[in-house]
Amino acid sequence: MALLEVRDLRVAFNTPDGVVEAVRGLSFDVERGTTLAIVGESGSGKSVATQTITGLTRGARISGSARFDDTELIGASTKVLQKIRGNRIGMIFQDPLSSLHPYYKVGWQIVEMIRAHDHRISTAAARQRAAHLLSLVGIPRAESRIDDYPHQFSGGMRQRVMIAMAMALDPDLLIADEPTTALDVTVQAQVLEVMRNLQEQYGTAIILITHDLGVVAEMSDEVVVMYAGAVMEKGARRTIFYDHHHPYTEGLLASLPAQGDIGARLTPIAGAPPSLISLPAGCPFAPRCRYAFDLCWKETPPLAEVYDDPTHLSSCWLSSNREMRHLDREHADETDAQAQAAEPEEWSA
Amino acid sequence: MSDPLLRVEDVVKTFPVRSSSLFDREHAVVHAVDGVSLEVMPGETVGLVGETGCGKSTLARCIARLYPLTSGKVWFQGKDISNLSRGDLRPVRRDIQMIFQDPYGSLNPRRRVGSIIGDPFTIHGIGSRKEIKTKVQDLMETVGLNPEHYNRFPAEFSGGQRQRIGVARALALRPKLVICDEPVSALDVSIQAQIINLLIDLQDDFGLTYVFISHDLSVVRHVSDRIAVMYLGKIAEVSTADDLFGTTRHPYSRALLSALPLPDPDVADSRERIVLVGDLPSPTNPPTGCRFHTRCPKAQHDCVVTDPPLEPVFDDPPTHRTACLHPLAVGEDLALAVPHIEDSEIVADDTTEGGAPLTERS
Lengths: 349, 362
Ligand SMILES: Nc1ncnc2c1ncn2[C@@H]1O[C@H](COP(=O)(O)OP(=O)(O)OP(=O)(O)O)[C@@H](O)[C@H]1O
Ligand SMILES: Nc1ncnc2c1ncn2[C@@H]1O[C@H](COP(=O)(O)OP(=O)(O)O)[C@@H](O)[C@H]1O
Ligand code: SF4
Ligand code: SF4
Ligand SMILES: [Mg+2]
Ligand SMILES: [Mg+2]
Fold this sequence. Notes:
heterodimer; A: about 350 residues; alpha/beta; Rossmann fold; 2 domains; 8-stranded mixed sheet; 4-stranded antiparallel sheet; 13 helices; 12 strands; about 35% helix; globular; disordered C terminus; B: about 350 residues; 7-stranded mixed sheet; 11 strands; binds adenosine-5'-triphosphate; binds iron/sulfur cluster
């Protein structure tokens, strides 16, 4: 059994403009000791989904299931969730300042966190553990830095402090929501290395949320591609990069600046993501898809095996039929000119 | 060879900061740009890369004369514009325009996009109301916006479209030089590609010259003819895009390139990673000698005292200049380098970023 099994998760918010369907039927598994990357454009529901799993979403309509090592998290009591958070599921967010208290010393915050979950540990022992954790994540002179305040650390160091805190209780699962998005590449490289090393050492499973396909290629074992609150494609890392099926995945990869071909026009995906309020029937990607055909506008495709491969799923009407996809590729090349012409497509709010 | 459109000569820009350090409360100064020289030819795109706080935006603002220079000179079309008065700057301001990162923050939410894009005409007193409207609608069409949306508010546009509004406004007065400061950094990749295409097309159509700032090396590489790598207010290496990637000389450039995550599992698995130790030193108190010596895998004793000049190394062409005393030879493996330098020689804060000074421990 997988460590975490998410099934048909749905999250909707009531807003003055209407019901925002942020997550619309999300399913995935996370295996022990592996890294699952969730990738998608901003607003695709990555953060809402993972925050809902850990019980941090307020004022939303939630349905579906998230089983973590035999405990159902959706609908679980605050007490159960609090115990699991930190203890068994560690979390790091994009902006480490928002989760570190500015008025308390960094070490004190880690010590409190350890003691909150382990009542038997002495303050001195917890403090020693905190210092050890800080040095594990590469903070020089950890023994003395433990008495510094968050603002005395740089952005990259704060993020490492957050990782230290998330790892304090040796969790089974670490959820990292855009942990390096606010960081420079050289600092990002340091933080990613820390995460890799900790996983190797402790066998922690990681859910890595990112919009950076480079980070996905460097870090993941499995990849979930999200769009408009739903999974478009799911598969092993190499499958997603070299043998992807879904037109959205194809579009994402094609829009990256390629190696070589400097100065050439890029291949963007036409248009913009849809509004999540009263999304029409059909495939959510249809308005931007170069392969779209009649059925796509009428019915939402299920997440189905690609060419009978149980580890590779795609939510596309062309998923099961290799022939059809080929034919459609040719058709798409013909109609590409039209898609390009429609490039700055209407964006409906 | 034609004359450069822009020549930046030894430009220095410092900002006074309030320091909480007990000693130099009066004298704390951020060395945001510290002696940068650069030429930009007509029709060329020069990329500026480097980590946060290395002075890219400050340099851009010095070029656009949005900041007075602390010292140094900026020549535009052969004319020294470093000390022009406000009035004399007016024509220059038409020729040099900026596009900013934040398509949300840089547009006033309460004004209609038509009037936002028309601002430059109004400010420079060009055309009647009706003429301005026609011009603005032409511009909207040029950048791929629907001219009928003239009366809409910024909030009614998506992120990519808001960036198009910024581009339209920058193009209004037919500038010669456009400085793009992280123009696509806030956008999702699929939208980012739309805006990059727009900038490439506009350059072809209007013969624009770009200074293109980004911390994303893959984007900069894609659009730039030449690239300057900055570190703590100085240029570490400048060359054609091809040479920078093909014959990387500066250890910092190499580290930057190796840290860029590549969207290709095979490459990601097989390439060497150089993970720099330590943090960016504070620009309030930059390291002596070569500013990179506190983190450089190749640092030697002389790096602590000598500030290396930016010049061709080995048999590099004059277009490829590197500020390093021990530049990388072709094929040299930086991952194998061992710094010959004592920890005690390293004289810099290891704790702070940006302009935030090291605070006293309580
Ligand atoms: N108005 C100002 N007053 C004081 N310090 C400033 C000011 N503007 C910039 N600085 C400092 O000057 C240095 C260079 O800043 P700059 O904004 O040019 O960096 P940048 O390379 O554009 O960084 P980023 O990638 O984050 O945009 C930084 O240390 C910054 O904190
Ligand atoms: N508390 C909330 N109330 C209403 N809408 C929300 C709320 N939180 C998130 N959303 C909406 O849900 C969608 C998904 O958001 P999010 O999960 O944050 O996206 P991502 O993390 O993929 O960028 C977005 O349209 C967002 O505006
Ligand atoms: S279902 Fe249709 S519209 Fe959706 S991705 Fe597949 S081909 Fe494109
Ligand atoms: S001068 Fe010395 S410290 Fe500076 S980059 Fe070269 S080798 Fe490194
Ligand atoms: Mg998010
Ligand atoms: Mg900047």
